[in-house]
Specification:
By secondary structure, this protein is α+β, with helices and mostly antiparallel strands. It contains 14 helices and 13 strands. It binds adenosine-5'-diphosphate (ADP).
């Protein structure tokens, strides 16, 4: 519980950290976007106002310039006062005023090529020398130059205006051949335009800000929810791990209990088996009644069966508790098959089942726990015999090389197992009801042990079956368990291999 709370607080801290970081990013993104937008709008405004000024100048130079060009050319010969009061200056002023009426043009100045202000709508400026002005110099060189400024007061055509944003452009006046004849300076009032742009920028900023804010809040909710889900998942995992640990501990205790109990049972059972065998074989003299002899025999065979069960239980519990240690040696796998077939020969004959073996001569040696490999083969083979009706056969084949490993395959022509039952019979104590269940006493541990031993060797255990047709079990040892070159030394019983027909 304390751990969960800790994780919950970690998650809250993480969400808070994310909120701060994402908030910063959103604010920075918003400011950058606003600045970029502002810059782009200003550049656009600047360019369009400048284009406007250039167009006005062109129209002026087309309409008015030819009329006044001569006067303006000789203007430098007059004093400032003469220029201001000159009749032509008045006419020029009237002409410009009529051309600019209704436009946002607030001032017009004309320079001759020496930088002298030969005309200005603000008459006070006529006669000034602006030869050092950067804008003038640029225009005289044929390039338009503009500047956006804010003026607290400004003398416009007819009155003094206050608080204006003005774009002034120096524009060359050119002849048809492209020669610069003079410079025109035009002041365009962009105050209203800028105000409109500012309002539209504010609205756009508000919309963008609101959208970013909604996105930000949604993001925080998503992160917070994911964190909460992660914490819940973590809590479930911790719970599952605890349950698994408990189950593992219970299973370990069960295996330990079974191992101890089986061990304890074996000691008295050995005594029972020993004494009943002495009685059965009448080692120390004849038993008085044949009935007692029969009982002694029954005690012995039941005892043997019990010992078999105890040994199986012990094997399973050892494997489950991970206490099985393989005693590995190198041996001929063919020998194991031959020995198993011999051991079960009597049982096969009794059941009228034919045992067939296919063992190649050039087998490599197998590095494995010989006793346990034999137990695997015996378990599988004895099942084949048990569940095959009279007249059928059980074939054991040893192959190697196909997938690099060595395979022992046992195929019977018996009753088979339905697909649905296969997982169950591979579990400890798993058995299927069949006409043979009553005939043979089984524990349901044979296949479990064979499979577990195979897996302990890194071998695969595969069971395929079809009801009414038979069963095939393949145990495949990996290639690294094969030892080549020592076969002849391990072998020497080729003749023994040919165990075909009823063993
Ligand atoms: P046991 O034979 O001691 O009952 P096993 O684990 O060896 O235990 O087998 C479990 C069950 O699987 C058997 O009871 C039987 O129902 C089924 N079985 C095993 N091998 C075969 C086989 N070759 N053919 C048909 N059924 C089989």
């Amino acid at each position: 519980m304390a751990e969960t709370e800790r994780h919950l607080s970690i998650s809250t801290t993480l969400t808070a950290r994310f909120a701060v970081l994402a908030g910063l990013i959103v604010v920075v993104a918003f400011i950058s976007l606003a600045l970029l937008h502002r810059h782009m709008t200003k550049t656009d405004l600047y360019a369009s106002a400048e284009r406007n000024n250039v167009a006005l100048t062109r129209s002026f130079s087309n309409v008015t310039w030819p009329r006044f060009a001569g006067f303006l050319e000789s203007a430098h010969e007059l004093s400032a006062a003469e220029l201001r009061n000159h009749q032509t200056t008045q006419e020029l002023r009237q002409s410009i005023l009529s051309q600019m009426r209704g436009l946002s043009v607030v001032k017009v100045k004309i320079y001759d090529l020496s930088g002298l202000v030969v005309f200005s709508t603000d008459t006070n400026q006529i006669g000034e020398d602006k030869s050092g002005n950067v804008g003038f110099i640029s225009a005289r060189g044929g390039r338009v130059a503009s500047e956006l400024t804010h003026r607290d007061t400004f003398s416009a055509f007819e009155q003094v205006v206050a608080n204006r944003d003005v774009l002034s452009s120096y524009i060359p006046i050119e002849t048809a051949s492209g020669r610069v004849e003079g410079v025109f300076e035009i002041y365009y009032d962009v105050t209203e335009l800028l105000d409109r742009i500012r309002t539209s920028q504010l609205v756009q900023a508000l919309i963008a800000g609101a959208t970013l804010l909604v996105l930000y809040i949604l993001l925080i909710i998503v992160v917070w929810r994911s964190e909460r889900q992660a914490v819940r998942q973590h809590r479930r995992n911790v719970e599952l791990a605890r349950t698994a640990a408990k189950a593992e501990e219970a299973s370990r205790l069960k295996s330990e209990f079974l191992a101890t109990m089986s061990h304890e049972l074996r000691t008295p059972l050995n005594a029972i088996l020993g004494f009943s065998e002495s009685l059965k074989n009448q080692l120390f003299g004849p038993v008085g009644s044949p009935k007692y002899l029969e009982y002694a025999s029954d005690i012995w065979s039941s005892g043997r069966h019990l010992l078999h069960i105890i040994n199986d239980v012990l094997d399973v519990s050892r494997v489950e508790s991970g206490h099985t240690v393989l005693e590995e040696t190198e041996f001929d796998p063919g020998d194991i098959v031959v020995a198993s077939v011999r051991l079960l020969g009597k049982q096969a004959r009794k059941s009228q089942v034919t045992l067939v073996t296919n063992i190649p001569d050039d087998l490599p040696a197998l590095r494995a726990d010989k006793r346990r490999v034999k137990q695997m083969v015996l378990n599988v083979l004895s099942n084949g015999i048990k569940f095959t009706p009279p007249g059928g056969n059980v074939t054991t084949t040893v192959t190697f090389g196909a997938g690099g490993g060595l395979t022992i395959t046992v195929i019977d022509t018996g009753i088979g197992i339905s697909k649905a039952d296969i997982p169950m019979i591979l579990m400890p104590f798993g058995r299927v009801e069949s006409p043979y269940s009553g005939k043979y006493r089984g524990t349901g541990l044979g296949l479990t042990i064979a499979k577990a031993f195979a897996e302990l060797h890194g071998a695969s255990f595969q069971l395929d079956s079809e009801p009414g047709k038979g069963t095939r079990i393949r145990i495949e040892f990996p290639a690294d368990r094969l030892v080549f070159g020592t076969v002849e030394a391990l072998r020497g019983r080729e003749a023994d291999r040919q165990v075909t027909g009823s063993a």
